[in-house]
Structure formats: C-alpha cells, structure tokens
User: Fold these one by one.
Assistant:
Number 1:
Amino acid sequence: MRIFLTGATGFIGSRIVPELLAAGHRVLGLTRSDAGARSLAAAGAEAHRGTLEDTDSLRAGAAKADAVIHTAFDHDFSHFAANCEKDRRAIEALGSALKGSDRRLIITSGTGMGSPRLGEPATEDVFNRDHPNPRVASELAGEAMLAAGVDVSVIRLPKVHDTVKQGLITPFIELSREKGVAAYVGDGGARWPAACVLDVAKLYVLALEKGRAGARHHAVAEEGVQFREIAEAVAAGLNIPAVSISPEEAPGHFGWLALFAGLDMPASSAKTRERLGWRTSGPDLIADLNRMDYSQAAAA
C-alpha cells in the first residue's frame, strides 16, 4: 500500500518510515522543507509538501494514499490547548479525503484518554470524553470521522523514549538543568507509562495491517514508572540533587509542565498485545535516561 505519513521526519515518524518500507509498503511523507524532502528521499520515501496548518495539503496527501498514519503534532506545550485544536482540524481534513472508502486513518493520542479517573490505569476500551487533558480533542475528532464512515483507529502514546528524547521528560530535563534541581511532587509516586520509540514504530505498522475500525491501541511497554525514579535518574545525569516539592510549589517551579508533573497516569497495553501480537524488546525508560549524554542540551 501507499501510506501517507504525517510527521514523517519527526521523532516517531522517522522510525515508522523504515518499518513501513520493510513491510513492503510505499511511503508518502509530509514535509514542509527541502531538508525534509531530502531526508525522506534518502530513506527511500516520497515527499509531499505541506504543513499541519495547511489543511488543503493534508487532504491532497490523503487523497493520493491507500491509508494514512497521522503522527505529526506541534509540541510547543506552552500553547498545548491551541495545538490540540490544530490537531483536531488536521484529523478532520485527513478524514474528509477518506470518506466513502475503506482506506484506513490511524491517528495519535495520549494514554491518559483511556483513564476513567485520574490515577486509575488507562485501558484501550475506555475513552474518557471529560478528561481534562486538551488532547481529548484528537479522539473526539476521530470519533466524528468514524461516525462519518471513515475507518479510524487510534494509537495512544505514553512517554516515548530513546537516549535523546523522552516525551515530556525532555523539557523536564532542560528545566532541571536551568533550576539546578530535579524536582518531583510530594513523594514522587506519580506513575508515567513509557515505551521505546522503536517498539512504538512497530505498533503503528501492526495497527495498519491488523487493526480494525474504532480500535484504540496503547503503545505501552512499562505501565508506570514512578516520577521520583525519573527525577533521580535525571539528577544523576546532570549531577544535581533530586528534591521533593509540595503540590502548592509545583506551578511556580514547573510552569506549564505543572499540568503533568504530579499526575498519576498508569496505562495498560494488555489488550493491544493480545489483539495485535505486539511485543516489546527495547530498553526501558530509566535505562535510556542513564545512557543519555547530559552534556548537551535537548535536541529541538
């Protein structure tokens, strides 16, 4: 199949490209730049010029493809709610090009959407439409497309990591570098799910080939790593202390990251593994944090 992949040169998308090619698919990758087009060509993929903001370019790319995998997202978390709305519009545009066909659309969300209440493990068969995380907009858009007859499924992401990036932990590392301490809230017992980026890339291909309309899949290798463990690994890497701060102190210390820092967000992938046969083999989160080079600031 010819797959239109948004975010094709990004952290996760660039790992999906070789997985798709190895499975015999062709890749049409969204890119906004000449450098991105060259990168895609070097990887064996075809470039489609466009942006998340240009919904006409998204519709055009989807119209050329047998299926769409949507991983692109604006990760400026200081404008998180606005970027979630941008993602909603992108999903609607991609879906509009697939209506009336059996061409699959795989969208991306966060594992928290599967938690019925804060602190309860997220599962694949739950969608909490009242979740306070603005990323709920992505799944609401997916539901609307499903109701309109589009074959939509969802990959929910935890903290996706290698030794360079680790989702929200990457800005946490830079904040810790700036503050001179790696802080955690209270006893640090809040749990964050995680998965190695290479395992996550494989799941997108399995969802493409084996998934069903309306399904939600969890790309979770570790159900919940305590935030204190994360802070202690970061503290060791930066050679700074790990310290506890109170919930009242969190907004002043973490800034926008306070929205997530104290949240207990465990998530299960049991049903994903059973339904798709997904197996994980990558390093765990703490191993990657222990192996990373802290002498360099985070990659953009």
Note: The mean pLDDT is 95.
Number 2:
Amino acid sequence: MTTIYDFTVEKPNGEQMTLSGYKGKVLLIVNTASKCGFTPQFKELQELYEKYKDQGFEVLGFPCDQFMKQEFDTNDEIMEFCQVNYGVSFPMFAKVNVKGKEAHPLFKWLTQEKKGLLSSEIKWNFTKFLVDRKGNVVDRFAPQTNPAKIEGQIQSLLSTKM
C-alpha cells in the first residue's frame, strides 16, 4: 500500500528528498501561490506550524503556477517572497504541477486518496491535504478553508500516537 513516505520531492535548491523523513508526523500539504487571493493564508499556516511543530506537526508547501500564473518564475523568488512577507519557516519545496498529465506523482496520489467536491482534480491554489502520523490522507480542504479551521483536526491527530 502506498503512503506519503513513498514519494520523492525536490527542494528549492534542486536537491531531491524523500518524504520518509516525516514518518510519525502529522502533515498539512498545501499547493501554494505567491500572487493569489488566498496568499494571506501563509500567515495562518505559519502560526499553526509554530504552535504545533514541537508536537510533531509539519506544513509542507508546494508552489504551483498552474492557476492563472499566480506564482513567481524562480524558486528563489518564491522562497524570498514567503520569508519576507509572511515569515514562512515551514518547509517549502520546488514549484510543481498539481493537476493534469504533468502533475507531480505526490499530487496524483493525494487527489486519488481524497477526491474534491465534484472531482479529484485540484481546482485552485491553497488546496490542503491533512495526513496522519502513519502517512494516510485523512482529509482534504478547499482553498477557501482557512487553516485555523483545521486546527481541531490537527490537535486530534497529534494526540493519537503511532
């Protein structure tokens, strides 16, 4: 059976890493964009990360430029924007595609595990996937769902031991 830990992703510097390093942690995986109406969600994502990171919680940000070109061209520009404007210190990765034939395998898997309201395809920036400590996708949230509204579920998953 496939879990989140079976995937390899690219860091902003081009280095490949496996998600197995996050075993035992609760994850919130988000496809982000720097120039989107939902971009202010970076603030709440960072707040959740700071509040729960010592309890085994990680936010993983994956920039995407597939929705009306709302992302910078380079990974360096993206990282600088996130850090300067929102103080983002949670892990951000290299820009990826999250839908279509060129979608990153991680996002193909996430959308198969938890379908959206009308289809499995991601419709916009800031779609969020909540993953438990065993690497299973337990919920999917629409872009307009404020990260703070997910806090109760995060607390519940954090209280569950492996």
Note: The mean pLDDT is 90.
Number 3:
Amino acid sequence: MSKITKNQHFVPQFLLKNFMSSNEVVNIYDSTRGKLRPPTSVNRVLAENYFYDKDNSVEHFLRDKVEGPASLVIKQFSPKHEEQAVSLNKKSKIDVLRFLTVQLNRTPRAFNDSLENIDKFFDVLLKEIGGLNNFEESVINSVKFKLNDPKDILRMQTVEAALNWPLIDDLEWHFIINNTHTDFIISDHPVVHYNWYLRDSTKIDYTAIINRGVQIFLPISPIVTLCLYDNKVYKLGKKDCSYTEVNNESDIDILNDLQFRSRNSFIVFGDTAQSEYVSNKCQLIPQNSMFNKFSESTPPVEAGIGKLKSTQMQWREQFTINKWISFCKIKNKLRRKQPLDNYVRRPDIVQEHRCFIDKMRDRRQRTLTMQLNGAKTVG
C-alpha cells in the first residue's frame, strides 16, 4: 500500500524549484497578512494538508497524468534544468496544454471562484422562490444552500480540466526571455490569461479562453515566461522567431503585474533583493483583481401553463490595462476595424468539445446512479 501524501501542492514543486535561490529555498510574500516569510523549502509552500483529497486519487492523477508529463517538457526551458532534452512534438505540446488548463482550475482562487458562483446562483434562486411564495424577507435570507463536501467541486473541476486542452491547441507558442534586473515572479495562481484585442468589448463572455485575441502566460523561471497567443490577431517579436529577448523593464513590470493581480495571497520569488519590489507591488495591486465579477437575473415570466421562467447570468470583466507589452502588436487588418461579432476562434471545435463533456458527465451520472442503486439493493 502506497503512502498517502498529506501535504498537497496546488502549484507543483517542479515549477517552484525554478524560482529557488542559490541556497535552494524560495522567498514567499503573504499579501493577506502583509508579511514576508523567511526563506522556505519548496515542499512547504503553495500547498495545504489534504487540499484535494484524503485517498490521493486526485493527487495521483495530477502526479501521473498532468504534472509528470508536463514537467519533462517545461524543465528543459529553465536555465537550471539538467534533464535530457525532450522533443517538442505534438504529444509534448499536449502535455503542457493539459497542464495549463488544469492549473487554471486547481488553485484556491479557482476553487473560491466556483463556490462564489454557486452561492450567487442559489441566493438568487431562493429569493425568487421565496418571493413567488410570499415568504417574509427575513425567512428567505435565513435559508442557505450548503454543499455536503465543497471539495467535490474542486476535485471535479480539476480532473475535468484535463479534457480542455483542445480549446487552446491552436495557439502559437512564444518564449519571453528576461534580460533586465527585475526577475519574473510567480503567484499561487500562476497561469494567467488576458485579451488585449477585446479589452474594450461589451460582450458578456469576451474573457473566455476560446475567444479571439486571448494570450496565456506562465512564468517558468525568473528569466523565462511561456506565452501562448492567437497568431491570427497578434504579432509577437520578430517574424518567424519563437522567442523575444526583453531589455525593457516596463515590459517585465506588465507581465509581473498579471501575477500580482491573479494571486490569491502568495507571491514566490528567488532573489531576496526583489523583496521590496514584491512588497510594494502587493500593497499597490489588490489580490484577485484580474477580473471583476458580476451577476444579474431577470424577473420570472410565464412560460406556459403553470410554468415560470427566469434567466440568471454571471460574468466577469477583465481589469483594464492601459499599456501592453511593447513587442506584441495587433495585426494591421484587425487594428483598423472593430472586433468581429464572431469572437470564438474555432466554433466547431468548441461545440464538439461541449458535446463531448456533456456525454462524459452524463456517463458519470449514470455510473453513479447504478452504483447507488446497487448499494441500495445489497442493503
């Protein structure tokens, strides 16, 4: 019987090790408490006891199917790597894409966002039901929806996110090399996406990763950041070159600001000389401020005999950045006109993926129902 892993990382150690100092420790700033922690081993940071589960089913899934394969690819782009180079073929790219989509969904911030969305949905639902039945407002407000095990949501979205890689496999890869005196830092929610092209959009779902103009960033080390971008919208760096060397401090500042805005609480960095920079940034930039969240519902209306219908919407708007990285340009043919009505990059792929996910969920539900019925029969 294998040993149960109690201390479970939501940002993997193989990535954090790239940010270690020469003493093989990292510095971590806790912005919730406004405190710089003493230099710490990576096995003790960005982790919680039994964060995913107590039987290690999700922990082992992440280790074997997500982190393990991706680490073999990502490590070779870190200056500290000593592993044999892995060919950047289709499979290795998929391994990284899968890691990115899972990492977007496995952190405390992603978990809290999901719980907040569920709370908002049921708060509105309960108020509408209470109002239709003439319940007193105090009674309506006293009723709260509660999950038996909220971590089921985290487990589901973490595992299911491994299926989402086809949604971003059309994006171009680009490596950003930092030649400045300011290091790249990494947060506790390190995969960040932003849409500079649609930054002025008024459409409700313009921040989705399936849309035109999305860019996805992951700091790999203090001097390397991986960027995936929509090459039908942007030009990055020099033509036919998969990397850009950056000497402009303001570009590094913009990229680091994405991490500061995306953080739930913690910022990790290697060089203690960066401590004041990190502390000052955390005081200026609120945590979890990459997106502003909104919700709205329509009043119930008749939808047939004895039926009422109401629509509830939840959406988010990205923080408005006034200046973008200097080596990224919107292509001239798109810059001269308003964003297209059809925002989705590949509608056919998105629709096919949604059908696939629905089938998988339906199959899982049928399996659970059969297991439950079997348990009842045995009992």
Note: Residues 81-85 have pLDDT under 50 and may be disordered.
